[in-house]
């Protein structure tokens, strides 16, 4: 998952416009208000889907059954916030991921809600680190195509391969990654889906370097890019970084993960202590390259076996409670 690398240099370009967050969230998990939002914003006037089987919801049910009403209430409140659903080949392989995604789309359609998915199965994922895994070079495009086919005709949003471009140099497979990401963009966009290619975060490297990777990966064929996925940087810092990238990618739009950035970053990427839940999802006002803030990495799920955490992606009661407490929930 995202980490801080000693590669930060001088930004080549700085844009003057900093996206201003607006539009109220109606309820904790509800409708993204359209007031002041550009009509072409894919989040304008949309209700984001809440997965009733999320790990937070499961944890809430378990705590309630055990008689711990206090913890159950906290986990229920987290579970009520629309959060991205991660598609991984380890949990949903070829011949299974399509059915799983289709079921969620059907549930969302009944609620007239828009689901947000994270596609996270690229070969040599995370360079073999905490979130190691992914598919073979041959199987990966087949898996992505199954996802695209299952979501075709829906208004689903895709966050494509967190860390893949930001880690490409470290994984020593830049050219291969660019082809894999670009081909996935084409497959998913052809199905009518809104796609954001992940662009790391503001502590990772210069905006100009990421903009170059995004351009080479075909960001102009996607809606844009995502930042701060699974990281903790403040929203204003990410806006500055993302606006710099946007200026170098022909005005590409972007979304920011705010699920765990309420207290900003302490420089650590793997289960850092003292963090807090961030602002709940909402669209950005018109006049900005920013489309929305989202909860992409589910709060309460571990970054990996560090700072006392379980394996990456596993639910961690103590972490969820700390994030909520520090956010004043």
UniProtKB/TrEMBL annotation:
Gene3D superfamilies with a match to the protein in the record: 1, 4-beta cellobiohydrolase (3.20.20.40)
Residues involved in substrate binding: 86, 201, 204, 231, 269, 297, 301
GO molecular function: hydrolase activity, hydrolyzing O-glycosyl compounds
GO biological process: cellulose catabolic process
Keywords, comma-separated and alphabetical: Carbohydrate metabolism, Cellulose degradation, Disulfide bond, Glycosidase, Hydrolase, Membrane, Polysaccharide degradation, Signal, Transmembrane, Transmembrane helix
Ranges annotated as spanning the membrane: 12-32
Alphabetical list of Pfam families matching this protein: Glyco_hydro_6
Active-site positions on this chain: 126, 163 (proton donor), 303 (proton acceptor)
Enzyme Commission (EC) number: 3.2.1.-
Keyword Repeat: no
Transport in keyword set: no
InterPro entries for this protein: Beta_cellobiohydrolase, Beta_cellobiohydrolase_sf, Glyco_hydro_6_CS
Range of residues in the leader sequence: none
EC main group: hydrolase
Family: Belongs to the glycosyl hydrolase family 6.
Name under which the protein is recorded: Glucanase
Biological source species: Herbiconiux sp. A18JL235
Organismal lineage: Bacteria, Bacillati, Actinomycetota, Actinomycetes, Micrococcales
């Amino acid at each position: 998952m995202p980490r801080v690398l000693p590669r930060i240099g001088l930004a080549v370009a700085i844009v003057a416009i900093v996206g201003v967050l607006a539009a109220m969230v109606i309820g904790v998990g509800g409708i993204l208000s359209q007031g002041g939002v550009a009509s072409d914003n894919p989040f304008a006037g949309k209700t984001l889907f809440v997965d009733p089987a999320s790990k937070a919801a499961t944890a809430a049910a378990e705590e309630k059954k055990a008689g711990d009403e206090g913890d159950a209430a906290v986990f229920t409140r987290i579970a009520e916030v629309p959060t991205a659903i991660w598609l991984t080949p380890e949990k949903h392989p070829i011949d299974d991921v399509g059915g799983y995604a289709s079921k969620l789309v059907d549930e969302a359609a009944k609620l007239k809600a828009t689901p947000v998915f994270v596609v996270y199965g690229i070969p040599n994922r995370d360079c073999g680190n905490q979130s190691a895994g992914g598919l073979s070079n041959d199987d990966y495009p087949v898996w992505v195509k199954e996802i695209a086919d299952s979501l075709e005709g829906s208004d689903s949003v895709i966050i494509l391969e967190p860390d893949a471009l930001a880690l490409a140099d470290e994984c020593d497979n830049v050219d291969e990654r660019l082809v894999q990401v670009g081909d996935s963009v084409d497959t998913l966009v052809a199905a009518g889906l809104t796609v954001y290619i992940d662009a790391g975060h503001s502590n990772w490297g210069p905006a100009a370097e990421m903009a170059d990777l995004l351009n080479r990966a075909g960001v102009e064929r996607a809606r844009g890019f995502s930042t701060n996925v699974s990281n903790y940087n403040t929203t204003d810092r990410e806006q500055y970084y993302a606006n710099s990238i946007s200026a170098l990618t022909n005005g590409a739009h972007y979304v920011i993960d705010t699920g765990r950035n309420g207290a900003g970053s302490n420089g650590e990427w793997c289960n850092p202590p003292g963090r807090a839940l961030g602002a709940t999802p909402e669209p950005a006002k018109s006049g900005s390259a920013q489309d929305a803030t989202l909860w992409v990495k589910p709060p309460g799920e571990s970054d990996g076996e560090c700072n006392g955490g379980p394996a990456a992606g596993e639910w961690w009661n103590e972490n969820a409670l700390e994030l909520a407490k520090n956010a004043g929930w």
